[in-house]
Amino acid sequence: MTQQASGFEFSDVQNDVISRLSSRMKFVGIFYIVVGAMMGLGTVAMLFIMPPVAVIYGLATAAEILIGLWTNNAASSFKMITSTQGNDVGYLMTAIESLRKLYNLQFWLLIGGIVLCVLVVIVVLVGGLAFMSQMTPTT
Amino acid sequence: MTQQAQPSSPSGYEFNEAQNLTFNVLASRMKFLGVLNLVFAVFIGLFAVLALFSSPLTLVVSGPQVALMVVMGLWMMNASSSFRMIINTKGSDINHLMTAMEALRKLYNLQFWLTIAVLVLFLVGFLLAISLGVFAAAAMNGEVPGT
Fold this sequence. Notes:
The complex is a heterodimer.
Chain A: E1 8-9, H1 12-49, H2 51-83, H3 88-135
Helix pairs in contact in A: 1-2, 2-3
Chain B: E1 3-4, H1 17-51, H2 57-88, H3 93-140
Helix pairs in contact in B: 1-2, 2-3
């Protein structure tokens, strides 16, 4: 018979793995947030110099901070698994949900990046062909 | 009373449908990112080999980058496969979960040490820049002997 949700507790060995994962994630998450905050300052400065670039910079800053926050949230939930009793699966699912958001964002950022690259290649090719056809002397 | 899961023996714990759905989305996203890491690593590796004829230094820069991307890609794919196994099999959910956790731990351990390396490099560069600035200022004021 299978067990459902409440009362499930991870063993000490499993808690050790989860605890080490949590501490590494916390550090990485904080680093992302700090870098994001510094990029935020850069974005504000860029607003006065080159507003269009500031928009791109702002988007990158938002992504950086979101990644940091979700990494940190997942780390905190993993830590709760090891430091509390009675709701391990609840905390686990909160952590997995944060990880899902984190990887979902990275997935869509990559898709966006790939689409942009393809668009740039198409524009360069079309522009190049148009330039070549203009340069070729017509008879 | 709480139930203690044993890593060596399957506990029989089963995640419910809603939880499986979350694992499913996470697994598919991680798989995509893992595969993409490997694809980019192959591209960078090929470019590094091609550039080797013009500049041998390329391999020194690209080699570690390719290795890191391959390792991270493989760990992401391992974690993804284990999350997927939680959904596709019965009776061993906790064991598959712990395999995924172990892959994630390795992934974040690597990121942790990479972050430390970046911070150390940044600090060294910062100190070096300050030292050079102080030395240059002293030289301009004629405070450095022999200048």
